[in-house]
Specification:
Elements (H helix, E strand, L loop, with lengths): L7 H12 L4 H10 L11 H13 L3 E9 L2 E9 L1 H16 L7 H6 L10 H28 L8 H26 L6 H10 L1
Antiparallel strand pairs: 1-2
Length: 199
Amino acid sequence: MTTHRSSPLALTVLALLHYKPLHPYGLQRLVKAWGKDQVVNVGQRASLYRTIDRLQEAGLVAVRETERDQAYPERTVYEVTDAGRVVAREWLIEMLAVPKQEFPQFPAALSNLVMLDPQEIPEVLERRLRATEEQLAGLAATLAGGGQDGLPRVVLLETEYLHAVTRAEVEWLRAVIDDLRSGRLTWSVEQLMALGAAD
């Protein structure tokens, strides 16, 4: 197994360079065009440059050429190395096969929900529900559009996955909001203090 540190962005860079050599701007454009920006953050070009530098230092990508064009600034074109192909395959198999403990913000916020009054939480969660329903509609539209455009299912699998997870979150949010509004889910400071005292 490789000792190089993996990341979703690093894997995506190596995967896209499998197709053809590209400069960072071309990589960023391709990530967005293929919808990979749903699963990797390329909003900050600086993080993309840092990732490419790290991959180059590790010998996983190399400079193919430097493009000079009067219309654009000088651009360095990168290509994946043989070592990069091997490492990308190892990372991909590892990421597909082994669940990783990740620490997203929403579960962390839920774990501290007791800081709020039970009566104010439904409104807060309803704001999230509306935003999540919008995300769900966008993902559904992407899936429908991809099918209409004749795209093979394999290039839409991450969107399929995000759609399923987002749909599950919408259903869960609706159930929790209903439990809060009906009083089935409630607590008091006294209950929480008693739990703390029991420890």
